[in-house]
Amino acid sequence: MRPVQQAGARAAELAALREQIRRGPSAKATEAQRAKGKLTARDRLRLLFDEGTFTEIEELRRHRAMGFGLENRRPHTDGVVTGWGQVHGRKVFAYAHDFRIFGGALGEAHAAKIHKVLDLALATGAPVVGLCDGAGARIQEGVSALAGYGGIFQRNVRCSGVIPQISVMLGPCAGGAAYSPALTDFVFMVRGISQMFITGPDVVHAVTGEVMSAEELGGANVHSTDSGVAAFAYDDEETCLEEVRYLLSMLPANNREMPPAVHCDDSPDRRNEALFELVPANPAHAYDMHAVIAELADDGELFETSPSWARNVICGLVRLGGQVTGIVANQPRVLAGVLDIEASDKAARFVQFCDSFNIPLVTLVDVPGFLPGTAQEHDGIIRHGAKLLYAYCNATVPRIQLILRKAYGGAYIVMDSRSIGADLSFAWPTNEIAVMGPEGAADIVFRRELAAAEDPEALRTRLVKEYTAELMHPYYAAERGLVDDVIDPAETRQVLIRSLAMLATKRAELPSRKHGNPPQ
């Protein structure tokens, strides 16, 4: 009986130790965390995972560092909780910094735990979520801490395009630590509690004299609106983590799987009569492309990425007939839907993501061209626009282009035209595909005639009409095989769903190469 009693006592001792670890370092530390309006690492994991499914690993891990008093402070977990669980019944890995322990700062043992969970996620083909709330590298451990970050960066790159990687910023993230989230697919932030920057406010003030708070320098509003670093920003952690769960429900576990399909009660044959009212026939009149997408998507739902940044282009995930589909669309309500540097970067990144994870693409086109001006030219619109061109040309997933109204110049080509590999291209009867708008074209083509005319304005009006009738009528591109069909706008949803179903078995391979060299 004695060995059994001893084993029972050991088990009770283990249970007590686990309970102590899960409570955290102290009630005071927990109170301090919550006083900042922040949840604890374990609170966050409970919100992320389906109830009762999280399995922790390396819970008993402690650091081995010496000096600066570290030998006397060796808390279990070393400031990060790692493991796996289920999100909507599907396996997901996660790590969560525990700010109550060393301020969530990364040391050698802490890094090794993150390395482990990233390696497991890659080996088993499952998404990984990082719940980030840490003070950067643990200064007392010196280069060992820096090497730990290097190992994380290397794994982020190795996982890129193989498994979905999501970073959720729930506290500070400064210095080199910010590069791990930047390497992942999506960054979520919470207003008021999360900040990201390479150099903090004190350093900025010392070097430049600028005075600003951490929130002004690198808060959620800054990165979701100005820099484009964060794809999503929310007012509270609960909403943020629920949206992370929703995004995961639309993604495949890895690049060898298809996105999860769901049963759809929204009829694939539903007509879209509302589009006649939503989209003005006059190409000079603005409208909200969100309303068009809502009319086409299952149950009107769009999960938009970076909605507050580069708003002249819309990127997001919808379901069409129950199948997850990526949407890239010009937004005529913002800058008339032109492509500029930021819009090109945003769309290119999204196209690459969809192609990595077998998500078909539908591109809704209503674009007057690239944004003109010296600022755009000097800041590299050629280079940035080429990113979007490269992303589309490199994509092998099913690709459908739909031209709603105008599609002018190089922007028409870049927005997934047939000439760069779109599988199907459709157009509404309101489409205008041309090198440029009719007024500009008439001014250039007939410059001499206009200069010599007695009534230049009357001649210009007549020539614009002639140019439009000859080269910009809705069937010009279809007659030349550059558009597969001109369709009734009311039939758009059913045309897209049937076309995607046909393309579902598409197989395409790129030339053998180590990797391409995309424009930067």
From TrEMBL:
Gene3D superfamilies: 2-enoyl-CoA Hydratase, Chain A, domain 1 (3.90.226.10)
Membrane-traversing stretches: none
Domain of life: Bacteria
Family annotation (InterPro entries): AccD/PCCB (IPR051047), AcCoA_carboxyl_beta (IPR034733), ClpP/crotonase-like_dom_sf (IPR029045), COA_CT_C (IPR011763), COA_CT_N (IPR011762)
Residues in CoA carboxyltransferase C-terminal domain copies: 267-515
Domain CoA carboxyltransferase N-terminal: 7-263
A Pfam family of this chain: Carboxyl_trans
PANTHER family: PROPIONYL-COA CARBOXYLASE BETA CHAIN (PTHR43842), PROPIONYL-COA CARBOXYLASE BETA CHAIN, MITOCHONDRIAL (PTHR43842:SF2)
Official protein name in the record: Acetyl-CoA carboxylase carboxyltransferase component
Phylogenetic lineage: Bacteria, Bacillati, Actinomycetota, Actinomycetes, Kitasatosporales
